Amino acid sequence: MLKKVFKEKSNKAVVLLSVVLLGLILAEPRAVFPEEETEAQDVCMLEKLAIPEESPAFRRLLKTTPATSEYQRARIDFLIERVGKSDFDFIWNGESFDGRRAAFHLKYKYVKFRSEAPTAEAFITSVASWSRKTGRPYLARIDGEICEVRAVLFRELARLDQMATEKRRETESLPAS
């Protein structure tokens, strides 16, 4: 009798856990305009960085070893630096802010919630993409389009990783002097 009760409860727990996990997978935030996602991908990006070496965070990134906390910190600093130099409007909780103010806000949140952001990806999802007060996503107005900051930062992070990889390959292929 006891085995039967235990088996029924464990089956219910497995079903409940499966439903919760499926809900989390399906609830992944989407672009603001999912029907225009391919167009929005081109628009929802920060302006291209002409000379990455001009960025202090990028130079620091190149001096660190990938997969270290210093490397992750440089990636996060790069994202914050890029937001700060952006001329786009950033929107949270219904108010619009310039890039400098948005960068200040992201730095503040990063300092406050650093333990939740050991990587740049965790920083984006846990700290930099939504309001803890309202639960609403942060938005950016880029060339007249409204985009989720989460998507903008992930695209910028992919760009950063590509630039860093290319720069490391260039450096490795140079003859030693």
Roughly what percent helix?
A: 55-70%
Order of helices and strands: HHHHEEHHEEH
Number of helices: 7
Count of all domains: 1
Largest sheet: 4 strands, antiparallel
- Identify low-pLDDT runs: 13-40
C-alpha geometry: globular
Structural class determined from secondary elements: alpha+beta
Distance between the termini: 79 Å
Number of strands: 4
How big a fraction of the residues is strand? Answer: 5-15%
- Rg estimate, integer Å: 20 Å
Strand order of the largest sheet: 2-1-3-4
> How would you state the average pLDDT, rounded?
80
Fold and architecture overview:
The protein has 177 residues and is α+β, with helices and mostly antiparallel strands. The protein contains 7 helices and 4 strands, in the order ααααββααββα. It has a 4-stranded antiparallel beta sheet with strand order 2-1-3-4. A hairpin with a 2-residue loop joins strand 1 (89-92) and strand 2. It is globular.
